[in-house]
Amino acid sequence: MLVSYKWLKELVDIDVASAELAEKMSTTGIEVEGVTSPAAGLSKIVVGEVVSCEDVPDTHLHVCQVNVGEAETRQIVCGAPNIRAGIKVMVALPGARIADNYKIKKGKIRGLESLGMICSLGELGISDSVVPKEFADGIQILPEEAVPGQEVFPYLDLDDEIIELSITPNRADALSMRGVAHEVAAIYDKAVRFKAFPLTEGDKQAANQLAVAIETEKAPYYAARILDNVRIAPSPQWLQNLLMNEGIRPINNVVDVTNYILLYFGQPMHAFDLDTFEGDRIVVREARAGESLVTLDGEERQLEASDLVIAVADQPVALAGVMGGQATEISDKSSRIVLEAAVFDGKSIRKTSSRLGLRSESSSRFEKGINAATVNEALDAAASMIADLAGATVRAGIVQAGQLDTADKQVSTSLADVNRVLGTDLTYADVEDVFRRLGFGLSGSAETFTVSVPARRWDISIPADLYEEIARIYGYDRLPISLPQDAGTAGELTATQKLRRKVRTAAEGAGLTEIITYALTTPEKAVEFSLNPSKQTELMWPMTVERSVLRQNMVSGMLDAVSYNAARKNKNAALYEIGKVFEQTGNPKEDLPHEINSFAFALTGLVQEKDFQTKAVPVDFFYAKGVAEALFDRLGLEADYRATDQLPSMHPGRTALISVNGQPIGFVGQVHPATAKAYDIPETYVAELSLSAIEEQLQPAQPFAEITKFPAVTRDVALLLKAEITHQEVLDAIQAAGVKRLTDIKLFDIFSGDKLGVGLKSMAYSLTFQNPEASLTDEEVAKYMKKIQQSLTEKLGAEVR
After folding, report:
1. Looking at the chain, which residues constitute the CATH 3.30.56.10 domain(s)?
2. Which 3 state secondary structure label does DSSP give 509?
3. Is 145 a known ligand-binding residue?
4. Which of 114, 198, 318, 353 is the most buried (most CB within 10 A)?
5. According to the annotation, is 459 in a ligand binding site?
6. Annotated binding residue at 160?
7. Could you tell me if 220 and 403 are in contact, meaning their C-beta atoms sit under 8 angstroms apart?
8. pTM of the predicted model, to two decimals?
9. pLDDT tens track for 371-400
C-alpha cells in the first residue's frame, strides 16, 4: 500500500517528519517498507511556456522558443509529437539532473543549438505504467496556471513523499487512506477529518431504469447508481497527480474517480457504460460451464463454475471483483454510466484471480476483506465526484440487493486479564484512553468491560485482539521487562533422536553417504519392498502419478537414486537414508497413516578397486550383512538372520529376514535380477530396518563393569557336520551347553571336499573362556569343552575332528 503523505496530512492534523512517522507506525504494528519522494535526485527542472514551435525540415524535430522566466526565451530542440506553441511544459535547464542522475548540458542537434531539454514524465523517473495515456508517447503538458520559471514539482506533486506500507492479512483495514488515517490519528491522539461529498440527486429514479439481483451466496451485497449526461474527459491535474503517486495510471474522469474511491475508502468499484447493456437487470451469479468473457485487457477468459460474474441479459459483462468486460467499458462516447459497489466472497475472488493470473488492486482487497459499513457511502462519494468532474446528473436512489451487517462488534474482557497478559499495571483510565484514541466505544468497569468495535476493524473479534490493541497504542516500549518466572528445563535428546544419531554414526563409519528421497511415490513402488503391505494413502490432488502415494518402504526410492547415479557412470555407491514410512490401518480417506521411523541402505559396485597389488572386491551379501551387524553391535543387540523368499523383488537365495528377540525388524539381501533390470541398475544389495521396532528392543544402558584382571583361555574345535547345518545352529548348540565362563565364539574356517565325504563340511571354531574372579585351570576348561562337545553331538550329530 502506497500512502501519499500530502494526502494523509489532509486527513489527520500531523506535522512530523515522514521518517518519524514511519518509525512510529512500524513500532505500533504496521511495518513501513520505506519512504521515497518522486523528486529525489531531480534538480533545476522548471516550468516553461512554448512561445513558438517550428518544424525542422526532413526530421521529426521542432525548434522551440521557450519562456522559462528569464529575460529572453531559450531555444530548445524537441522531438515530442505533441509539442506546440502556447502550452506549458517541463524544462530541464543546463546543469539539471534528471532520472538516473543524468546531467543536462548545452548542445547541438542537427546543427541547431539547444539550451535545455523539454521533458516527459519518463525522463523524470516516472514509470511508464502510470503515465497518463495522452502523454505516454510525448511530453507532459502542465496546467495553464503554471508560472514559467518556477519549479515543476509542486504542479505535479512530485515533491510529495510516498510511504510504502507492508500490510499483513489481519490489517487489511489499512488498505485505504481512511484506514491509515484512523491508525495515525490513534498513534498521535488526533482526530480524523474526512472530506464531505455532497450529493444532489435528479428527479429520475434509478429503479425505473435498472434492477439488480443476487443468485449466489458468494455475494452478500450489491448496489448500483445511475448517472446521466456524463462527459468523459481527462481528470483534473490534482487527481492525476494523486493516482500516479499511488502507482495507478490516470485514464479519464470516471475511471479515475473509481480508483480514487478505491484508495480512499478501500472499496473496489467499477463503472459500466449503460448504453451497452442489452437488458435492464444486473444479476450477480456464478458462471456456467462453457461461458467466456473478453476482459478489459482484451483477453478472452474461459470461465468456470466457481467464478463470480456480473451478468446482463444472461451474458457475463464482468468478472466480479477482478476485472470488467471490454464490451461495457467506459469510452469517450459514454454518456450514461452505472456505478457498482459490492461485497464479494474473498475465497471465490482469490481462486478466480489466481487461476486466471489477474491480480488487481480490487481483487486483493476483496480477498482480505473490506469495510461493510462504508459501501454505500463510497458509492455516494463516487457519484458526487463524477457529477462534479463530469457534469453528470445522478438519478435518485440506490438500486441494491442483499444485506450487510454493519453493527459494531461487542468484545468483553477485564482489566485483570489485560494486566495479566501484558504484564502491566494499567488503570481503567489508561484503557479508556486507548480505546478513545482508536475510536472504539467502551462500557462497563474495571471488573468487566465491553468494547464496541466498529465494522472498519473486522480483524478484532476476541479478547486477545483487544490486548494487542492496548499494547500497540499504549506502546510496546512502555511494557515492563521481566525475566521468565518458571525455571527452565534442561534440554536433552529423546530416545528416538539418540537412536537416529547412533544409526547415522554407524552408517557413516561403514562408509555410507546419507541421501533423502521422496516420501511420495507410485502405487506399485509404495509396497514393492514391504514385508507387510497395508492400505495405500493416496493424495487427493497429486501433481503427478510418480508422486501420488505415501511410501511404505524406502528401498524403492533408494534404487531410483542408484539408477540415477549409475546412468551417470557413478557405479560404486554406498547410500543410506533415515526417514519415515507410512502404514495405513484405518480408512485411507479419513484416517491419518501411522508413521514408522526407518533406516535403509543400498550398496552396489566395488568395495575395493583393483590395483597392482590387490584384486577388485565387489559388494556381496556378506558385506551388506556385515554393515547391518556393525549397526546392531553398536546398539548392543543380537540379531538373527533367516533366509526368506517372502519378498518377490529380492533374490530368494541371497536375502535374509532380520529379527531381534523374535521380533522381525527388517531384511537384508540382493535385489532380484529382474527387479534390478527394471530399475536399470547393476547388482545391488539393500537392507531396510524399522527403527521404531529397534527402539522397542533397546535395553537400558548397562552399568560399568570393572575389567577382569585374570587371563582368558582359548580352545579350538573342528566339527564334521552335515552340509545343510547353518552357523547359527552351531552357535545355538554351543550356547545350549550352558557354560557360564564362555565369553566369545568365533568361526575361523569352513572346509568341504571329497576327502570329507558327500554332503559333509568341516567348521572350525575358536572358543574363549574367562573367569572374572580367578584364573581358569586346565581341568575346568576341559570340563567346559566336554559339555560343549556333548551338546553339539546330541543336537547336531556333530563329530569332533
Report:
1. 2-37+161-188, 411-478
2. helix
3. no
4. 318
5. yes
6. no
7. yes
8. 0.66
9. 999 999 999 999 999 999 999 999 999 999
